[in-house]
Amino acid sequence: MRDFVYHAPTEVVFGKQSEEKVASLVKKYGGHKVLVHYGGKSAKKSGLLDKICGLLRDGGVDFVCLGGVVPNPRLSLVHEGIDLCRQEGVDFILAVGGGSVIDSAKAIACGVPYDGEVWDFYTGKASPACYLPVACVLTIPAAGSEMSESSVITNEDGDVKLGYSNQLSRPKFAIMNPVRTFTLPPYQTAAGVTDMIMHTMERYFSHDDDMDLTDSLAEALMRDLMDNVFKVLADPEDYRARAQIMWGCSLAHNDLTGCGLTGDWATHEIEHELSGMFDVTHGAGLAAIWPSWARYVYKENVSRFVRFAVNVLGVPQDFTDPEGTALKGIEAMERFYHAIGMPVNIHELIGKEVSEDEIREMARKCTRGHKITQGSFKVLGSEDIEAIYRMAR
Amino acid sequence: MRDFVYHAPTEVVFGKQSEEKVASLVKKYGGHKVLVHYGGKSAKKSGLLDKICGLLRDGGVDFVCLGGVVPNPRLSLVHEGIDLCRQEGVDFILAVGGGSVIDSAKAIACGVPYDGEVWDFYTGKASPACYLPVACVLTIPAAGSEMSESSVITNEDGDVKLGYSNQLSRPKFAIMNPVRTFTLPPYQTAAGVTDMIMHTMERYFSHDDDMDLTDSLAEALMRDLMDNVFKVLADPEDYRARAQIMWGCSLAHNDLTGCGLTGDWATHEIEHELSGMFDVTHGAGLAAIWPSWARYVYKENVSRFVRFAVNVLGVPQDFTDPEGTALKGIEAMERFYHAIGMPVNIHELIGKEVSEDEIREMARKCTRGHKITQGSFKVLGSEDIEAIYRMAR
Fold first, then answer.
1. What is the pLDDT at residue A72?
2. For A352-377, what is each residue's pLDDT tens digit?
3. CB–CB of B15 and A9 under 8 A?
4. Closest alpha carbon within chain B to A16
5. DSSP state of B148
6. Is the Cβ of B168 closer than 8 Å to some Cβ of chain A?
7. pLDDT above 70 covers what percent of chain B?
8. Do A260 and B243 touch (CB under 8 A)?
9. A211 vs B contacts (CB less than 8 Å)
10. Which string of DSSP letters, residue by residue, matches A123-142?
11. In what order do the strands lie in the sheet with B62-66?
12. pTM above threshold 0.90
C-alpha cells in the first residue's frame, strides 16, 4: 500500500440554512474586507449574489464585488481581481459560483501578495509563499474545487490552459445549499456527475490492489452518484438527490477516494485537449473518451475492471471469463452515459468526425510535443493517445 | 436530510515512512518547544519514543517529555502537564500513543493558556478561548481521538469521568504508521475494532433515512473493518490489514459517517457506566451491551435494522419477514463478536452476574440521577436503561 497524506481542512457548511452563516464564517477565518467574486448573470438572477452581499453587510463585513468569470476562467480577469484587491485592501476572497469562479478566486488569492506575475505559478517558474484566504458559496457541483487544492486558468495570450495545485489554496470554508442547484439544466447536471464519477475513477483504476477500504468507499460513492443523477433528471427539485450529488462532488475530489492509491488521470489529460480544440463541456468530453481509454488499457489489470463491473455497475460476474465481465462493465458504463444524455464517442460529442490531423495535433499537445507520457494504469505515449482518439472517433 | 457541518482539518500522514516527517510537521504548525506526552513502558520499549525524540533533536526542535498517561487518563497528570508546559515555555503538544494519551494532551493544550481550573471546561463551567496546538503519533487505533474534537478525562477526586468537545482541539497532524500496531494483543485489537464499528453504528442507527451516501460509506467502512480484523487476528503483522484498520479508525470518528444524520450514542453512554463500575475495556463493554440495546429498540425503525443485516452482515433478506431479517442481523453481529473474542452480554464480559442493585445504580448514573434521557433512535429513560442492562445481564 502506498504511503499517503490526507488533508481536507475545508469546513463544509451544508444545507438549506447554510448561507445564513456567511458573515460569521468570514470573520472566523480572519476576513475584514472581502472580494465577492462571481460569474455571470445567473448569480444575480437567482438572487444569491444579493443575498450574500446583504448578509455580509448585515454582519458588518466590508466587501467589493467582481463578476465576469467565464468557463475556463481567464488570466485577464485574475489580473483585474489582483489590482482591485490591492486598491481596496482586500484580505479575503469569497467565490460565489462553481469551479471556474473558485479557480479564479484561488489565482487572485496567490497573486495579491506576490510582486511578480501570477502566471509564473501556473508555468512553474515561481512558487507562492502565501495566499489570501479563499472560501466559497458553491452553486454548481462538478469540479470539486470547493475542497481541492487545484485551480485551472486559461491564459488568452497563446490560449494556454494550465493547472496549479497548492495546499494553501484549499478553501477555508465551503457553503453548500443544494436548493441552489435545482435550476441547473439537465445536460450540465449530467456532465457534472460524469466529472465527479471520473474524479473517482481516475483514482480507482490503479495497480495498487491492496487498499480495499479506499476502493469500497469509492464504489459506494460512484453507485450513489449514479443512482441520484437519474432522480434529479426526473425531478430537478428532488432535494435529497441534489444534496447527495452536491456532497458526493466534494468527496469525489477531496482525496478521500485516493488514499493509498496511485491515480491515473490519463482520461482527464486526453479530454483537456478535446475541450481545448472543440470547446465542449469537460464532463461530456470525459464520457466521450473513457470507454475507448478503458478498452485500450483494461488488459493491464483485468481484475480491476471486473471489480468495477461487478461492484459499481452490478454486472453479473462470469467467473469463467474475467475479460468478458470486464468488457461488459465498459458496455454498462456506456449505457449509463447514454441514459443520462452523455456521449460515448467524439462524434456524438461534437457532431462530426474528428480528422487525422486533429488527432495528431491533440496527441502532440497532450504529450507536450511528444516529450511526456500520460497515465499510470498504462503509461501512454503519443502513439497510444492517438490510438485512443481514433478508437473514440 | 439534516443540515450538517463537516470539518476534519487534521493532516493525516500515513505509512511506513510517516514518522520521519515529525520535526518538519511540528515546525509547519508553528511549534518551537514541544511537550512529548506519552503513556507507559510500551512507547519506550518499542523504541518509538526514542525515535521521535531523536527526530525532533535532529530537526532542531526543542522538547520536554512527560509520560505516565493511563487508560481513562487522569486529571492529576493533566495538571502536572500544564505546570510543566508553563515552566518550560512549551508551545506545542505532541501525543505519542493511543486515545488516552491524545485526550490527555488535548486537556493540557486548553489548560496551559487558561488562568482557571482546566476541569471547568469538562464540567461546562467555562469555555476555552484558545488551545496550544496538539498533534499525535498514533500507536493504538481505537478511540479515533487523532482526528476528533473530543477528549475524556477522569477526575480521581470523586471518580468522575467527563468528556469535552471543542473544534480547537482537533490535532493539527496525525502520524500513522501501521507497523506500530503489529504488537497490539488480539484482545485489544478486537476491542479497538469493536469501538470503531460502534462509532459508525452510533451514527448509522438513525431515523434520518434519506442520506444514502453517508449510509453507503458507513456500510463500506463497517464491512471492511469486519473483514480485516480476522486477517490481523490470524496474522498480527499483516500490514495491509493493519493499515486498513488504522485508517478506518479515523474515518469512523471524524464525522464522515455522520453527515446528514442524527447520532444515537445510547450504547456508548450505557457502556460508560459499565466500564466505570467494573473497569472493563470500553470496546468489549460495547459488544456486551449492543445486542440487548438492538433488541430493545429495533421496532422503532425495522427497515434500518434490515438494511444493516443485509448490507453490512450479508444476511439473506426475507422479503416477507422484515422483523425476522432484522433479528437475524443482530444474531449475525453476535456471531461476529464471538468470532473475534468479544462478549455479547455482561456475564461474558465480567465473569459474573450483575446484581439488581448494580443495574439500578448504573441506570441512575447514566441518567444523572433520573434527570436526563439517552439516545435518539429510541429515547431511553432510566427504566429503559435498566431493562437493557437486565437483557444484557
1. 85
2. 999 999 999 999 999 989 999 999 99
3. no
4. B3
5. -
6. no
7. 100
8. yes
9. 240, 243-244
10. HTS---S----EEEEE---S
11. A62-66, A33-38, A92-97, A134-138, A173-176, A4-14, B4-14, B173-176, B134-138, B92-97, B33-38, B62-66
12. yes
